[in-house]
Amino acid sequence: MSDQGSFYQRDRNWHPPALTPQYKTSILRSPQYPLLSLENTISEMTGPVFGHNTLGPLDNDLIRNFAKTGDPIGQRIVVYGRVLDENARPVPGALVEFWQANAGGRYRHKKETYLAAIDPNFGGCGRTITDEEGRYWFRTIKPGAYPWPNGINDWRPAHIHFSIFGQAFAQRLITQMYFEGDPMIWHCPIVSTIPDRQAVEQLIAALDRETTLPMDALAYKFDIVLRGRRSTMFENRMEGN
Amino acid sequence: MVQKLERLKESPSQTAGPYVHIGATPNWVEITGVWKEDLGLVLVGPGAKGDRIVVKGHIFDGSGTPLKDALVEIWQADWQGLHNSPQERRGKADPHFTGWGRQPTDGVTGEFKFETIKPGRVPYRDGRLMAPHITFWIVARGINIGLHTRMYFGDEEAANAECPVLARIEHKVRISTLIASRSEENSIPTYTFDIHLQGEKETVFFDI
Ligand SMILES: [Fe+3]
């Protein structure tokens, strides 16, 4: 890989701020001092990589990877897309992890108290590694919406949580994917922590009729963008190289 | 109209939520049989060089209550100051040390704990050496975008005093929020790094 420079500064107006009172838990968990801006050092410009031997054969198949007595209940879907950087270049070898509620909106977690039923055949976690062109895909069931304790009647729209490792710890990102056409997106106090409507739309996966598996599963396309790096054309090489 | 720059925007962050462990450490929340072992539990292989240490602590919210649903990731250099990463251009790191760890905070006590190696020193951009440190990344319910911070070592006073990153902290009283205190537990050097999300002792967080 060619020499690459430091990462573009994060656009803190595109990301949600730390303090978003409509999402009540953020009130006591948001730092109040300004973040200390730090030019990237080697400590953040490096990061762990995960080889394909990390993965098992069913890791990207949530329909089968926890199945005990049959397939989980719910709408069968395929989620696919690319991990790119801000320069629109693919990020190969990125570890993408995802987790979600079942079709009824219930998580398999000991602290979860929602009354919707646990699905004995659904664990709710999966992972994959992007290929040379930054592509990934997995099969799952569409998660249900669920209520959560914030206001007395707040509901999360259907969503899948994503965690992504790029090439550097500075790129580390956790986000959520929403589904095209879901009216509940625009009522969610967590979605609305993102101040810019276009930024929210970047998290809404598109229904892709041309990629559906006929008579099997709907398809949704979800591209993920990680921070991009400056060209070293104009940048002095870091000493110590 | 001017020419377009053809750049994309980074995907906006969203909170990891209360159930981040389902995706990050499924075995820990009793989702077993999907994968053998949660990633990031073991940093130190049997052949790893350097001093074995333990790093532990709590993450406190603005009321002083420890977070019991957080996920902590650490990233650090090996004993010589090299990272186990293809992006490391200065040499080859110890292959028996991954440098990356991931731990939940305990669901009852809120404690996190890593068994790792004391890192060597890594140069800053201008070549001056930074003091030994471990990079932390914290996500949890209520945290809208992952928080980056660093842990420094309480027994490295001389190195800390000349660290170019610590020198960037304008309010000198806040430097102590990044310095872990050393003790011995079971004759292993143990560093306690408590993180405060807000309040008088708010930890210094970085925009990297
Ligand atoms: Fe969720």
Description:
The complex is a heterodimer of chains A (241) and B (208). Chain A has 241 residues and is mainly beta. Chain A is built from three helices and twelve strands. In chain A, the strands form two sheets. In chain A, strands 2, 3, 4, 5, 8, 9, 10, 11 and 12 form a nine-stranded mixed β-sheet that branches. The two termini of chain A are 15 Å apart. The mean pLDDT of chain A is 94. Chain B has 208 residues and is mainly beta. Chain B has helices at 20-24, 157-161, and strands spanning 52-57, 59-60, 71-75, 100-104, 112-117, 133-139, 147-153, 179-185, 188-192, 195-196, 206-207. In chain B, the strands form two sheets. In chain B, strands 4-3-6-7-8-9-1-5 form an eight-stranded mixed β-sheet. In chain B, strand 6 (133-139) and strand 7 (147-153) form a beta hairpin. Chain B is globular and about 45 Å long. Chains A and B meet through helix 1, strand 1, helix 2, strand 3 and strand 9 of A and helix 1, strand 6, strand 7 and strand 11 of B. The structure holds fe (iii) ion (FE). The site of fe (iii) ion has 3 residues of chain A, from strand 8.
Fill in the keyword field for this structure.
heterodimer, A: mainly beta, nine-stranded mixed beta sheet, two-stranded antiparallel ribbon, 12 strands, B: 208 residues, mainly beta, two-stranded parallel sheet, binds fe (iii) ion
What's this entry about, in short?
The complex is a heterodimer of chains A (241) and B (208). Chain A has 241 residues and is mainly beta.
Detail the topology: elements first, then pairings.
The complex is a heterodimer of chains A (241) and B (208).
Chain A: H1 26-29, E1 36-37, H2 42-45, E2 76-85, E3 95-99, E4 125-129, E5 135-141, E6 146-148, E7 154-156, E8 159-165, E9 173-179, H3 197-201, E10 204-207, E11 218-221, E12 224-226
Parallel strand pairs in A: 2-11, 2-12, 9-10
Antiparallel strand pairs in A: 2-5, 3-4, 3-8, 6-7, 8-9, 10-11
Chain B: H1 20-24, E1 52-57, E2 59-60, E3 71-75, E4 100-104, E5 112-117, E6 133-139, E7 147-153, H2 157-161, E8 179-185, E9 188-192, E10 195-196, E11 206-207
Bound molecules: fe (iii) ion.
